[in-house]
Amino acid sequence: MTERRARGRLAITPSLVPRSLEQRGTPAMAWQARVITLFPEAFPGVLGLSLTGKALKDGLWGLEAIDLRPFGIGKHRNVDDTPAGGGAGMVLRADVLGRAVHMAMRGVPEDRTVWPLVCLSPRGRPFTQATARAWSRGRGITMVCGRFEGIDQRVLDHYAIEEVSLGDFVLTGGELAAQTMIDATVRLLPDVLGNAASIEEESFSGGLLEHPHYTRPAEWEGREIPSVLLSGNHAEVARWRRSQAEALTRARRPDLWADTEHEV
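^ that's the sequence the OP posted. Answer follows.
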């Protein structure tokens, strides 16, 4: 395996100790995402497309989907059981998930600010652009995708797994949330987008929603591009974009507006 290959997408291998973890030992220099999931075939999914997909192939970041099933119990590799105390659904077993987490965290930095260990959960702290920025400054992340009714609390407590939520809604599993969070993080890595200015101007970069965008044709269905954008006056354009961003934020996200430092 060449160095460039090793820093990009890694093979998915269904074994009790994932082969790629055994071979790699320590994380490569490129930012790495390790995802523990019952559906490794869901990855890379949308992460393999467009700019994130190109960056993955170019070795700017790495992805490893770790199949939870081989860590299961018995002939059928069971990973779940009925909830203690009764109730509907099934719960991921602590002994099964614990082994997977232990293997997934081999060779990574102990400092969780450098390599977070998170579980995708609707009861976790909200994922934000600030979270993506913080993760992008580290060396990688390990994510646990929940399924069924949830995860045995003991494995969360034992490994101090941080719960993170994509939003106030419930998904059938954490895979879509994981892909969304990884996408938001990877696009902040150096050289992935190729235009740092676009990151600085987009939504949430300064605590505001992004201003409206326009392009050719100059007139469409009786609607024209605002004249200030065609004026060539860069200072006026900047002021217009700022005022539009502020107006949109006040109207649509008063919570963000309340937390933003406003110019006087």
